[in-house]
Amino acid sequence: MRKEAKRKRGGQEGNQNARTHGFYSKVLDEAELMDFELASGVNGIDDEIALLRVKIKSILGKDPENIKLIMQATSTLAGLVRTSYDLTKEQRKGLKEAIGNVLRDVALPLGISIGTAIGKKS
C-alpha cells in the first residue's frame, strides 16, 4: 500500500493557476498576462530605465511642447537612475543639472519656455 503525501494548504509546488486565474487576470488581457509573466522574471530596473529613455525621446520628437509630461518623465527617470545606482546627494544634484541642461538644449531652440518647469524642486 502506497502512502500519499499530505497536501499543504494553498497552491501546490509547480501550480501555475495564479498566473492565469489570479489577482491580475481580471484586469489584464492575454497579451498583458504574457508580458506580466515575462516581467515577473526580470530583476532590477534597467529595462524600465531604457524604456523610459525611449519614451522621452519619442515625446521630444512628437510633442516637444508638452513640458509637464517631459518633466514628469525625466523626474521619474532621475529617480530610477538614482535608485539603480544608489547615488549620493552630490551625484543626484549633478544628474538633475544634466537633465535640466538637456531640456534647455532641446526646448530653447524650439522656442519653448521652460522657465519654472526646471525650478528648485529637489
Question: What is the gist of this entry?
Answer:
With 122 residues, the protein is an all-alpha fold.
Oligomer: single chain
Q: What is the helix fraction of residues, given as a range?
A: 55-70%
Residue windows where pLDDT falls under 50 for at least 5 positions: 116-122
Q: How would you sum up the major sheet?
A: none
Distance between the termini: 70 Å
Give a count of the beta strands, DSSP E runs of length 2 or more: 0
What would you note in describing this structure?
This protein is an all-alpha fold and 122 residues long. The protein has a domain at 46-117. The chain has 5 helices and no strands. The longest helix has 19 residues, at 67-85. Residues 116-122 have low confidence and may be disordered.
Supply database-style keywords:
122 residues, mainly alpha, 5 helices, 0% strand, disordered C terminus
SSE topology:
Blueprint: H1 17-21, H2 30-39, H3 46-62, H4 67-85, H5 89-107
